[in-house]
Amino acid sequence: MVSTIHPAEPHAASHNSRLNSLRAAVLGANDGIVSVAALLLGVVGSGVGDKAILTAGLAATVSGAVSMALGEYVSVSAQRDSEEALIAKERWELEEFPDEEHAELTGMLASYGMTPETASRAAYEIADNNPLDAHLRLELGIDDEDLTNPWHAAFWSAVSFLGGALLPMLAIVLAPSSAAGWAVAAVTLVALALTGYISARLARTAPLRAVLRLLIGGAAGLAVTFGIGTLFGIAVS
């Protein structure tokens, strides 16, 4: 009934997991696009040959995917460990201090506009069913059936990084050497715009803001690395 009345609101039990995977995928894709494209432009700006450019791009793609996966796994694992510790602590408090926990839940329910008597009765009814779930949701904002998954985050982060990095790599391979830098920059900016738009649509936020944010940041990164590569090429020539 709720999902019918409010179809745009995320009420599914796996909402947190989907948001976590979406976050990892968007971050991975953006990082793959920008970091590999920026590195390629920096190497192109230095004036080295095509073989060195491709080698640097491949190394950045592989190492970046591994780094993103490991970083997401460690970060999300730490978050999950923290959530599990809080769940264990709340379970222990319910077993050892039921009266205090009942009073705490009554206070939380009363803060939503219930009278103290109604809140107390509701707390007793909750205690007869699943008090742990209620305390976790209201007190800590945790759903014990929808904890963050480090493996999902690591997988989507690595896959999306590879997908993002593939775009500037294809541009550098397919474009003629004289236009390689322009091709990488154009493909990167278009890809960032699409990524920003898609992520905003999935998250139901303003697309224009997300697109502009990625385009401005991406363009700045490309310009800086190309400039550094060019200066380095001049210095060693």
From TrEMBL:
It is found in: Endomembrane system. It comes from the Bacteria. GO terms for molecular function: manganese ion transmembrane transporter activity. Keywords: Membrane, Transmembrane, Transmembrane helix. GO terms for biological process: intracellular manganese ion homeostasis. InterPro entries: Ccc1_fam. Its main location: membrane. Pfam families: VIT1. GO terms for cellular component: endomembrane system. The chain crosses the membrane at residues 24-46, 52-70, 153-173, 179-198, 210-236. It is a multi-pass membrane protein. This is VIT family protein. It comes from Corynebacterium striatum.
